[in-house]
Amino acid sequence: MGTKIKGKYAGQCKICGSDWKVGDDIFYQKEPKAICSDKECFEEQGGKFTPYSGQGTLTNSGGWGKTPIITKLPEVEISDEVKKITEYWDQFFVVAHHKTKSVYPQEDVNGDRFGQIRSKMMDQFMGLTNLIKE
What we know:
Elements: E1 3-6, E2 11-12, E3 19-20, E4 25-29, E5 34-36, H1 39-44, H2 80-103, H3 112-133
Antiparallel strand pairs: 1-4, 2-3, 4-5
Helix pairs in contact: 2-3
């Protein structure tokens, strides 16, 4: 099965001609061989994209496979007070995102590590808000 990886080398698709640079996201599958930065072209080559490698088991690369999380939301009416709180949360999220980008420019904004750092930064901002209120 194929996966999305960061290109280790610059390259060009032999089918559609799209280019990619080192570090760009590309779709790759060893058998049958399929490689392209365009998902549709990758799949036309016989590639089968699998966003999760394994079901919580150790993979050949030494990492743990990711299992999708199934979210079940309760059907409830959201109060105006909660909606106001979530507006503040959105603001903290945006500030934490941009601050994390400026402090850790080497991190991929779509990576797990970036998300963990951003989450911690949001916690810290919200904690500082509590100090200001006192």
